[in-house]
Amino acid sequence: MKISELSRRSGVSVATIKYYLREEVLPAGEPTSSNQASYDEGHIRRLRLIRALIDIGGLSLARVRDALAATENDELPLHDAFGAVMLGLDDPGTIAAADDTFGEVRDWLAERRWTIAPDAPATRRLAELIDILREFGLPVTADSFTAAADSAEATAIDEVHYAHDQPDRIASVEMMLIGTVVYERAMAMVRRLALEAASARIENSARIEDSGRR
Amino acid sequence: MKISELSRRSGVSVATIKYYLREEVLPAGEPTSSNQASYDEGHIRRLRLIRALIDIGGLSLARVRDALAATENDELPLHDAFGAVMLGLDDPGTIAAADDTFGEVRDWLAERRWTIAPDAPATRRLAELIDILREFGLPVTADSFTAAADSAEATAIDEVHYAHDQPDRIASVEMMLIGTVVYERAMAMVRRLALEAASARIENSARIEDSGRR
Questions:
Q1: What single-letter DSSP state applies at residue B211?
Q2: What is the pLDDT of residues A140-161, one digit of tens each?
Q3: Which residues form the HTH merR-type domain (chains A, B) (predicted)?
Q4: Is the dihedral of CA B53, B58, B61, B66 positive or negative?
């Protein structure tokens, strides 16, 4: 299809599509003449992914490019591609975790026998978040996340298999990204709803107690 | 303390502090002369909170102001303050969920007997995220989040009680915000680590199988 149809079907403006082509987050189309190219369903899927990563994941275009770089190297084993995606999703330069807390998280991961790349930004980011929670007086340790880790672990193998089982390697990497960024937002919303429901329950039982007293 | 000391102790520049004062996300200090004011520990805590909401939660300053507005109305019961915080955290105008999916999420919440405000953005946002996952071919329904909801529910009552038990109402609202925004990022990091560990485990067992075949 032409760029105008790609724009219409994806809901992304032609100007933005051209910008993504220049920034190399969207692969070039098949040239049909000196100034035209043809695009396919893969481009629509990729545009949808880019929008999800930016709008839902709050990623910058530079992060999107880094996370998607793993789709380009056909030689890379899928596990390494997955590691590259995870590396691309966060910017280690923006993380300020205390060394002690970082060590505490590393030890906790080792105890769980989770094999994590030493430079995985999620380890350092989790340590930073623990530091922040402590600054606010919350009695949090790495071990506070053991129940959450157990429950994430219970579904993670199936999720990774699902990504591996996609028809091609680009689809596998894209599925890993969607499974990471969109799912984690969904989990966050479930948590917000659970907190609101708990707050309503507490308020309600306080009211019943109160009217019982009269 | 003077604004210079507030800046030094919080790590936030004087210019940014003045901006937050003008934007009314940071309460004014106690005036000490016509052009000076005195700040206290509450201001340091508030600055830390604002930075966490912006840097970790990815909130705009307008979202931060909306979420913090609930600290100002002393008459508001804590549950309503909590609802206001949740309303402030997301912008419903940016959510595009299909009506069917929104209804599906509403029904699922009703089945769980979770009392959620009809205008809670998290309901609509969760529906939108389900739509996106489906666009990528993932077989997701509201019910797919039942295990996550069970596990969030198990700790939510304690978390809300913890916020209620803070020494004053401002601290309660601040704790709700931190408990929501910082914790959900931490949970997301735990999920990323679980996925990476699962990917390593799958790659490893493939390698063992492979060498067994030789």
A1: H
A2: 999 999 999 998 998 899 999 9
A3: 1-70
A4: negative
**Which of A133, A153, A191 is closest, CB to CB, to B194?**
A153
Kindly state whether B56 is in contact with chain A, defined as any CB-CB distance less than 8 angstroms.
yes
By Cβ distance, the residue of A123, A194, A202 closest to B152 is: A194
Q: Does B213 score more than 80 pLDDT?
A: no
User: Which tokens sit at A88?
Assistant: 């691309």
| Mean pLDDT of the region A91-106 | 91
Q: Tell me what the mean pLDDT of segment A4-17 comes to.
A: 94
DSSP-assigned states of every residue in A52-75: HHHHTT---HHHHHHHHGGGT-TT
Q: Do B178 and A133 touch (CB under 8 A)?
A: yes
Cα end-to-end distance, chain A, whole Å:
73
If you ran DSSP here, which 8-state letter would residue A140 be given? -
Contacts of B77 in chain A (CB under 8 A): 203
Longest dimension (CA), chain B: 84
Give residue for tokens 């708990």: A198
Residue B144 to residue B101: CA distance in whole angstroms: 13
CA angle B25-B28-B30, nearest 5°?
A: 155
Take residue B188 and report the two structure tokens written for it: 């997301």
Query: Phi and psi (nearest 5°) for B37?
Result: -145, 160
Residues A85 and B182: their CA atoms lie apart, in Å, by 23
**How many CA atoms within 13 Å lie on the side-chain side of B176?**
33
pLDDT at A214 over 70: no
Decide the pairing of beta strands B36-38 and B30-33: antiparallel
- Which of A77, A122, A199 is the closest to B82 by Cβ? A199
